[in-house]
Amino acid sequence: MELRSMLQSIFKKPENRVGLSRIKLLDGYSNDYIPWDGNALKNATVVNCIDTICKHASKLHPHHIVRKNGTIVENKDDNLQYLLDTRPNWLMTSSDFIEKIIAQYYLYNNLFVYIQRNAKGAVTALWPVKFNDLQLLEDKNGGMYAKFTFGSGEETTVPYEELIHIRRHYNEDEVFGNPDNYVLKEDLNLLSSVKVAIINVVRNFNKLRGIINLQGVVRPEDQDTLWKKFVNSFAGPSNGSGIGIMDNRGTFQQLTTDNQTFDSSTMDFARDNIYQYFGISKDMVSGKYKEEDYQAFYESVIAPIAKKLSEEFTHKLFTQKERGFGNEIVFETNRFSYMSTASKVKIAAAMIPAGAIKRNEIRELFGYAGLPGKEGEEIVVSLNYVKSSDQSLYQTGKDSHKKGGDEDEPKDDDA
Which of 145, 161, 298, 307 is deepest in the core (most CB within 10 A)? Predict the structure, then answer.
């Protein structure tokens, strides 16, 4: 597929949409959205924060399930499951796809995914949408549309119902997440100013400042000559000793300034503001987190994202009728992978007796490959636990609830 035809290959053939007008919302005609990142990707701290969240979010596994009477049944729609968990489109893996949409979610507080369908309405691809401008339009029947303008200048208009749209900081605007023009920009400017100050301290640390006092009256041209000779002798390219010389026609008086080394706590303060904005800790970014740190990170960052993805994908990928039959998209992850071996042993010890875990799930918990066939899908259970109503049957082989009890047993005939 040629990249020059990306617009035509992703979006449907442009239809002659007539009668579309700007939609009027409750807060007026605020229906234009321009992504703003404040050059955030040029800041290493911001990039590290977003990259950390994206890497852990990419471990999410989307599943198409069917829930019937409270029971989850794996769906047999292999095409949709392959699309979700392996290849959302011909250009991206599932991990690439999730990393890209989560990055947009945190950079712009809005992420958009276009749902590509075939003539029968089946989902054939999912495409993250990056654009320069978006306008909300409506038709005469009240249907909402999104008009995208891309960096190439090309435009396309699609029904809003064909877009997966997830928002962050959803407060002031009726449709879009709030653009953090001021909040993030203020923190970025602070961090940039701190870095500039550090650079200036380093540059000025070894500079020599002072005054040359010349004896008697010296002509201006001679002053320049003596000054240049002293500067060259002290800081010239051929002098690496840092020692300069001057004859008795002049003396050098050094001017001292209080150049202190930069306080690292100032840099920590500026970075902590960025960390708090993204809800992430320094230890998570540096990869030095402990089990408790990851648990807090998962609950406060990854779990809310997974819930939003599950809800919006379910609503947009399925019709109301399909949702009524229990079709759902669920984003899950192995929350035990970050645990220590001791914690994993405790989890297994608690779940095995209750029959709440399969053999392959136990092996996966400890990093081993699954067993082939039905053997790996068998549920492991301890015989030390039975239903309270089955205790007599388990211990004596007799059912105490059976009418007649032992009297029903055949008796030996009298001799």
Answer: 145
> Residue 267 and residue 22: Cα distance in Å, rounded?
46
Phi first, then psi: give them for residue 363, nearest 5 degrees: -65, -40
| pLDDT interval class at 404 (50, 70, 90) | low
Q: How far apart (Å, rounded) are the C-alpha atoms in residues 243 and 241?
A: 5
Pull the structure tokens for residue 195. 């870095």
Cα–Cα dist 214/326, whole Å: 94
Q: What is the dihedral of CA 238, 240, 242, 247, to 10 degrees?
A: -30
C-beta of residue 45 within 8 angstroms of C-beta of residue 274: yes
CB-CB contact of 203 with 259 (8 Å): no
Which token pair is 298? 């998962």
**DSSP sequence for 291-304:** HHHHHHHIIIIIHH
Q: What whole-number distance in Å separates Cα of residue 146 and Cα of residue 22?
A: 10
Q: Could you tell me if 408 and 402 are in contact, meaning their C-beta atoms sit under 8 angstroms apart? A: yes
Phi first, then psi: give them for residue 342, nearest 5 degrees.
-60, -40
Strand partners, 331: 62
Tokens standing for residue 355: 């029959």
HSE-up of residue 73 (Cα within 13 Å, Cβ side): 12
Cα–Cα distance for residue pair 214/385, rounded to 1 Å: 100
- What pLDDT band is residue 286 in, cutting at 50, 70 and 90? very high
Residue 113 bridge partners (DSSP) = 128, 164
Tell me which amino acid residue 186 is: E
Instruction: Specify whether the CB–CB gap between 65 and 73 falls below 8 A.
Output: yes
Dihedral (Cα; 217, 219, 225, 227), 10-degree rounding: 50
Are 104 and 114 contacting, i.e. CB atoms less than 8 angstroms apart? no
The answer to which of 98-112, 214-228, 372-386 has the lowest mean pLDDT is 372-386
* Residues forming a β-bridge with 72: 67
